[in-house]
Write a structure and sequence with these properties.
single chain, mainly alpha, 0% strand, Cit_transptr-like_dom, cell membrane, membrane, TRAP transporter large permease subunit, transport
Length: 381
């Protein structure tokens, strides 16, 4: 277990104890906990299932295959390769969640850049920024979206996308424009495509691709996302077992630290909201789009985007301000390393790959990109 997972486990356990203490003190009732469980169980179920899907797909070599195809599509032009990598990051984020992009796509993209003799930083920045800013479009793209989806009255994925597609598009294009400008010298280079050695089971990889192709439309079909994600996770586990890879199918596939962190956070934040008088919340309520978005962005970079969303959700008074809040907590966490769990996990994977991140540059570029992205995205809400 890495340092990030250990920290999540400790913080989650502390938050859960705080929440249970609030229950024991009477600040939370049994009905409150039951209502909270009914709201969050499908969310946590989806997070667990999609994490298993992504991990087993990675072990089957799906992401490595996609990156190799991207190298061939680039035809020696780095800027084309970068655009294909960016498209992969966006698709992975939208359908498989931002953590998938940060945890699984980042290492293979960075290793591909090194294999081709390229600076890995523009590709690393692309995956982490698009993991965050690209997570606005669908409910399944981000844990905050799943929570907002319920707050919005459980619209279909298409109805949700109708509310978010404009800011989602802006939130993708603006960071890409910044990267294109900052890393222009690298992107103008050329490369010679490498031929990686075949190290995966082709049959397993093909069947895993079939499962993912079926899963993606199922996630936007209107069925509760945890259902197709769970079926896909079981299917991929069965494929791994049939192909003789029993070591991959183990309990540690489930992201227990993340589930504990999120569960503890849900309970603790519910206790905090219940402790605030209703008239005080009414006084804080806002329908200002820019106010909701900037509050979300500031809160995410000071704390983390998930507690920022949970704390600010009660004061978003209508659909427009709630979508603006999502812009802030999804597209805004670009400045501090702890602004989102995806960024923390991304950093851990880069460290494992031996890539050093210049944090001063990360903070500066993130601040500029956040200052451009959030207002422009909110303007389209």
């Amino acid at each position: 277990m890495g340092a990030v997972q250990r920290s999540m486990t400790v913080v989650g356990a502390v938050l859960l104890v705080v929440g249970l203490a609030a229950f024991a003190a009477g600040a939370l009732s049994a009905d409150d906990l039951r209502a909270l469980g009914a709201r969050t169980a499908p969310v946590l179920g989806f997070v667990a299932a999609i994490s298993v899907v992504a991990e087993l797909a990675d072990r089957a070599g799906v992401f490595a295959m996609l990156v190799h195809r991207a190298e061939r599509l680039g035809r020696g032009r780095v800027w084309v390769l970068w655009l294909v990598f960016a498209a992969l990051a966006v698709v992975a984020t939208i359908f498989l969640s931002l953590d998938t992009t940060a945890v699984l796509l980042t290492p293979v993209v960075v290793l591909a850049a090194r294999r081709l003799g390229l600076d890995p930083l523009p590709f690393a920045f692309t995956t982490v920024w698009l993991a965050n800013t690209g997570s606005l479009l669908l409910p399944v793209s981000n844990l905050t979206n799943l929570l907002a989806h319920q707050r919005l009255g459980d619209p279909t994925p298409w109805e949700f996308a109708e509310l978010t597609w404009r800011p989602a598009l802006v939130a993708i294009l603006v960071p890409m424009a910044v990267i294109a400008a900052v890393f222009a010298r690298t992107l103008r280079q050329r490369y010679r495509p490498a031929v990686p050695a075949e190290t995966t089971d082709r049959t397993r990889r093909r069947w895993s691709c079939v499962v993912l192709v079926v899963l993606l439309p199922a996630l936007v079909s209107g069925v509760a996302p945890w259902i197709p994600a769970t079926i896909a996770a079981l299917a991929l586990a069965l494929i791994a077992l049939v192909r003789g890879d029993r070591r991959s199918v183990r309990p540690s596939l489930v992201p227990w630290p993340l589930l504990l962190f999120a569960g503890g956070l849900f309970v603790a934040m519910e206790a905090l909201v219940r402790a605030i008088p209703a008239d005080r919340l009414d006084g804080l309520a806002t329908s200002s789009t820019i106010g909701a978005a900037m509050s979300g962005a500031v809160g995410a970079n000071l704390l983390n985007n998930l507690p920022a969303y949970l704390a600010l959700e009660p004061i978003a008074t209508d659909r427009t301000s709630l979508v603006a809040l999502l812009v802030g907590v999804n597209a805004g966490p670009l400045i501090t390393p702890w602004a989102s769990l995806a960024t923390l996990l991304w950093h851990q994977r880069l460290e494992a790959a031996g890539v050093r991140i210049p944090w001063g540059r990360f903070v500066l570029l993130g601040a500029v990109t956040c200052a451009l992205t959030v207002p422009l995205a909110v303007w389209t809400v």
